[in-house]
Amino acid sequence: MQQEMHAWYALYTRSRAEKKVAEILTRKQIESYCPLNQVEKRWSDRRKIVAEPLFSSYVFVRIPERMKQVVREVEGVVNFVYWLGKPAVIQDAEIDLIQRFLREHKNVTLEKVPIRQNDLVEITAGPFIHHRGRIIEVSRNKVKAVLSSLGYAMIATIAMEEVVTVDEALEQPYI
Predict the structure, then answer these.
(1) Are strands 6-13 and 89-90 parallel, antiparallel or unpaired?
(2) Please, what's the largest Cα pairwise distance for the chain?
(3) CA separation for the pair 39, 41 (Å, rounded)
(4) Distances (CA, A) of 108 to 93, 98, 155, 165
């Protein structure tokens, strides 16, 4: 008996419906992930840490191809997110990277970026040690790691001495 291949897909939801869609998918026993960013909110009388969706109007689902129509019919789902004319398939390693990134960093910001070819690097310390990736931009103390399936960059402060360039001839798949 052959097991079905499951892949991660990005779903576009109604505005501010990310958590509700993820909850409905979970109740239907469909594996989903709504990345939540811990953000400090300030009011005149108090401060509070709240969990906000990292990707506005996005939820990720891990399903076999045959389940796409079932997922489209979930209340709050607008459609799958398309990238280069097809539903965006997200690599397991990218979902893992988002999860690790959010465990290690608070108040994460996103920037829409074009995918460019820059230096291949390897992280030498910190939560992403031994991970390779393409540097989109380097400033004094910021390095941008690209989620190539979606065209977003997560921004983290990484010391310059924790990043080394890698010889292109030795390149292996990276996260």
Answers:
(1) antiparallel
(2) 61
(3) 6
(4) 19, 11, 7, 25
CB-side neighbour CA atoms (13 Å) of 55: 23
Domain boundaries, the chain: 6-90, 110-170
| 110-170 classified as CATH 2.30.30.30 | yes
- Topology of domain 6-90, CATH: Alpha-Beta Plaits (3.30.70)
As beta bridge partners, residue 132 has 122
Residues of the chain with pLDDT below 50 are: 1, 114-117, 147, 169, 172-175
Length of the chain counted residue by residue: 175
Q: Which residue has the tokens 């990043």?
A: 163
Q: Is the pTM of this model over 0.70?
A: no
